[in-house]
Design brief:
disordered C terminus, 13 strands, Rossmann fold, 16 helices, alpha/beta, seven-stranded parallel beta sheet, globular
């Protein structure tokens, strides 16, 4: 694309690399591959993510965030969540149950908005893309859109549809949240959802134009196939990497399934190990340390990203745990890394988007997230090599970031072009 037609995108995301959270990895993947498609990407993010270069970025602007100051008495919790320190992370702050739509409304969004306005005055962006959570990030897009910048609002989780947090305790809060969602998202030129149920809800309930752009994996990030040193090569290693409680999921039904398998088929159970790698909540740590699970369930702690990816590639099979409460829109970021690892995937949550993707790509098996007997049966099939695993490479590659970024680039160009056409008509 020529310089005259080169697109420039302001990507507003509270989390970006070097943060290890999945939201940051999406920012990294999009920025890297959008740049290769000729899009100038300026990333506006929070100091809470740390400081590092971002491959492909035209510029990275890190704003103040109260979560990154001494005012955040829960900083150690945040560091544990990201695997920065070896400690259990705790439940969300009570303050998060007070501020609607989210705590970033006071901790980060005001700083992000001020800096976005400065950037907008000095650089005419083709488009601004705001990504949530936190939903308050979309207020930046709303303000810039009213000043003439085309705007895409991206939902990595639903806002009021199947949100990643518990329901607001007060009816007043729920009403305010719904009103904000409606007024803000209806102001966008386009809403993007990372799963089909989020997109379908936005179209049906809010009456907005919404398009699907999933999460993905970076094909250039794949490690060489080599032993990780973290699993027993003599057994079937079912591996889970990453966090669970942050997505409101729990390993409790799986652990009960392991107990039942050990009681009903001890010889088969002896051939299985379930390995957990990543930060744990204090509740999860207690569950996984139960004495009656010793010898079958192992915890290897938080790993740096290369070693976590190596463990995925070395595993016999890989585990996705969902909360099992009817949130159809769940497709965790680790799922796409698992697709790249080319190992059979077991999804606990057979009515989720994660299950649909695994079925579409022929990459494994989905079962109940809550029924220990059904989970135990799936474990039997795993150890016996009886699960369907004939991965569709073409279907898998649609979830690689080069393809995902190409979709985003096309939508940015379309939104920017439509806005220019409207502007030209309005001045003629």
């Amino acid at each position: 694309m020529t310089d005259e037609r080169r697109l420039s995108l302001l990507l507003v995301a509270q989390l970006a690399p070097p943060s290890t959270l999945v939201a940051a990895r999406r920012v990294a993947g999009l920025t890297k591959y959008l740049a290769r498609l000729g899009v100038d990407v300026t990333v506006l993010t929070s100091a809470i993510s740390g400081r590092a270069d971002l491959e492909g970025a035209h510029a990275v602007v890190r704003t103040r965030d109260l979560l990154a100051t001494p005012l955040n008495w829960r900083r150690r919790h945040f560091d544990a969540l990201g695997g920065v320190v070896a400690a259990s992370y705790s439940r969300p702050s009570r303050l998060e149950r007070v501020v609607v739509p989210d705590l970033a409304l006071v901790s980060w969004t005001p700083f992000a908005l001020a800096r976005a306005l400065e950037l907008e005055r000095s650089h005419r962006f083709s488009c601004v893309l705001t990504t949530s959570p936190p939903p308050s990030a979309h207020l930046v897009g709303l303000v810039l859109h009213r000043r003439g910048t085309p705007w895409i609002a991206e939902l990595r989780d639903g806002w009021t549809f199947e949100p990643p947090h518990p329901a607001w305790p007060l009816a007043f809060q729920r009403g305010v949240d719904r009103a904000l969602e409606r007024s803000v998202l209806r102001g966008a030129d386009l809403v993007v959802g990372v799963t089909a149920p989020i997109v379908e809800d936005a179209r049906r309930r809010l009456g907005v134009r919404a398009e699907l752009v999933t999460n993905g994996f970076d094909p250039e990030e794949l490690p060489d196939a080599a032993a990780s040193g973290l699993r027993d090569p003599a057994r079937h290693s079912l591996v889970h990497t990453g966090r669970m409680a942050i997505a409101r999921s729990t390993p409790a039904p799986l652990l009960e399934a392991v107990r039942r398998l050990r009681a009903s088929a001890p010889d088969l159970a002896a051939r299985l190990e379930v390995v957990f790698a990543g930060p744990l909540s204090s509740e999860e740590a207690a569950l996984l340390a139960a004495p009656d699970l010793a010898g079958t369930v192992r915890v290897v702690g938080s790993l740096d990203r290369p070693r976590a990816l190596a463990l995925q590639r070395d595993a016999s099979s890989l585990l996705v745990v969902t909360e099992g409460s009817g949130r159809r829109s769940v497709a965790t970021g680790k799922l796409f890394e698992y697709l790249a690892a080319e190992r059979p995937i077991l999804v606990l949550g057979d009515d989720t988007e994660a299950a649909r993707i695994v079925e579409e790509t022929r990459a494994g098996l989905a079962t109940s997230a809550t029924d220990p007997d059904r989970i135990a049966d799936a474990l039997r099939r795993l150890v016996g090599d009886e699960i369907p695993f004939a991965p569709d490479a073409a279907a898998r590659d649609r979830y690689a970031y080069p393809a995902v970024a190409a979709r985003v680039a096309a939508l940015v160009a379309e939104v920017a072009s439509a806005d220019s056409s409207v502007g030209a008509r309005s001045t003629s």
